[in-house]
Design goal:
Number of strands: 23
Number of domains: 1
Structural class: mainly beta
Helix content: under 10%
Keywords: Signal
Shape: globular
Radius of gyration: 35 Å
Protein name: Beta-barrel porin 2
CATH topology: Porin
Number of helices: 1
InterPro entries: BBP2_2 (IPR018759), Porin_dom_sf (IPR023614)
């Protein structure tokens, strides 16, 4: 019993000593006293961070990634109507924003030309904004807005020989699409609205000619339904309805306002990202409001194929049929055009790329009897001096047989240099 009392007494003495030490002077760490604020409720002492282990602040990223380029090209053309040399300056830029759900791309460019006679002109201006956003796991929305100004050079190969100064063409357009996936089904809705304005033309037969009768609004709505027939092939059907509104009647006193409808069906396929193809056939109608104009009904063909076995080789081909307004300095009510194109590119190495292309076309202007057949091909090469400078060389041949303007053959050779960011 005496021994137990001694043990208890020793424990009490040790506890008293520890309590006294706890209420003594504040604790010191490396000769630095912790102040009272750091021991308040919710504030805890933090261990010192060695200077070599400090994590630097991440730099702020700009909202857009900007790329730009500027090209200077000279082209010599030998054509049936004569020879010409044209120098063009082509600045362009691209601003890209990659967001969490929405991606934005803004593209802009211009083409400034100097003709053989020394005249300067703006042959092209364009600005376009594209947006893609994910509305859900199976739903995607996209849209674009663009505006452009263009003017052909006087005496261009295949142009109307009666036109001395071609008109300026101003175009503005809005388009949108929503695509939704339902299991094996794919449904998409598209809409487009476009406005086209034509400036006056200087002609040898009528002088300064007003083209305001060709100014037009164009609207179009489309619905496409596809079903996954196999893991490779999709079967689809597509219906479109459109409307053309002209500002005023032409010289004949009749406005070419019309409603267009089309229905087509086809099949598309994709093989491991190496080969993709699509083909469809259908029928299209272009019904004019005025009973004095003959309505148009035609077969519609559409096909495309792309083959890229690796990053060095890319082959594409396409076939399409369109019904569209004739534009300025062309008679008739509407143009029906069948166009086929093909292109190939091969990257030999990091500094040399080879290119080739070909095209074929057949168009008919309804209400005037004008027809045009054309074909052509070209080849070119791009040589990179470094990551920012490239030299391009091209050759192109074009043949046009127009029932009103006759046959035109042209050979063009061009050489240009491009600087980019």
């Amino acid at each position: 019993m005496a021994r137990q009392k001694l043990i208890i007494a020793g424990v009490l003495l040790a506890s008293t000593a520890l309590a006294g030490a706890a209420w003594a002077d504040p604790v010191t760490v490396a000769d630095k006293t912790l102040d009272g604020e750091r021991l308040e409720a919710g504030i805890y002492p933090s261990a010192p961070m060695p200077e070599g282990f400090a994590v630097p602040d991440e730099p702020a990223h700009p909202p857009f990634e900007l790329d730009w380029s500027i090209g200077l090209k000279g082209s010599y053309t030998a054509a049936t109507g004569g020879n010409s040399f044209v120098t063009t300056l082509n600045p362009a830029f691209t601003a890209t924003h990659q967001g969490v759900r929405t991606d934005l791309v803004l593209n802009g460019g211009a083409s400034l030309a100097r003709n053989t006679d020394g005249t300067l002109g703006v042959t092209g201006l364009n600005l376009q904004l594209d947006a893609v956003t994910a509305l859900g796991r199976d739903t995607t929305a996209s849209g674009s807005a663009r505006i452009g100004l263009s003017q052909d050079l006087p005496g261009a190969p295949g142009a109307n020989p009666l036109v001395e100064v071609p008109p300026q063409v101003l175009t503005a357009a809005l388009s949108g699409a929503v695509e939704r996936r339902f299991g094996r089904f794919d449904l998409s809705v598209t809409g487009d609205l476009e406005r086209t304005l034509y400036g006056p033309t200087t002609r040898t037969d009528t002088g300064l000619t007003d083209n305001s009768a060709d100014n037009v609004w164009q609207g179009d709505v489309g619905l496409r339904l596809g079903v996954e027939a196999t893991p490779i092939f999709d079967v689809f059907t597509q219906a479109d309805i459109g409307r053309d509104w002209f500002d005023q009647a032409g010289t004949s006193g009749i406005k070419n306002d019309a409603t267009s409808r089309s229905l087509r069906g086809g099949v598309s396929g994709s093989w491991n990202g190496l080969l993709s193809a699509s083909a469809s056939v259908g029928v299209g109608q272009h019904d004019f409001d005025d009973a004095g104009l003959t309505d148009i009904t035609t077969r519609l063909y559409d096909a495309s194929i792309a083959y890229s076995p690796d990053t060095t080789l890319n082959l594409t081909a396409a076939l399409s049929t369109t019904i569209e307004p004739t534009g300025a300095d062309v008679g008739g009510t509407a143009r029906v055009a069948h166009i086929a194109t093909a292109s190939a590119s091969y990257t030999v190495n990091s500094w040399l790329r080879l290119r080739a292309s070909a095209d074929w076309g057949l168009s008919t202007v309804e209400g005037s009897g004008e027809t045009e057949r054309r074909h052509g091909f070209g080849a070119g090469a791009d040589y990179k001096f470094n990551s920012r400078t490239a030299l391009s060389a091209d050759y192109a041949y074009s043949h046009r047989d127009n029932s009103l303007n006759g046959v035109t053959d042209s050979h063009s050779v061009s050489l240009g240099v491009t600087l980019k960011r």
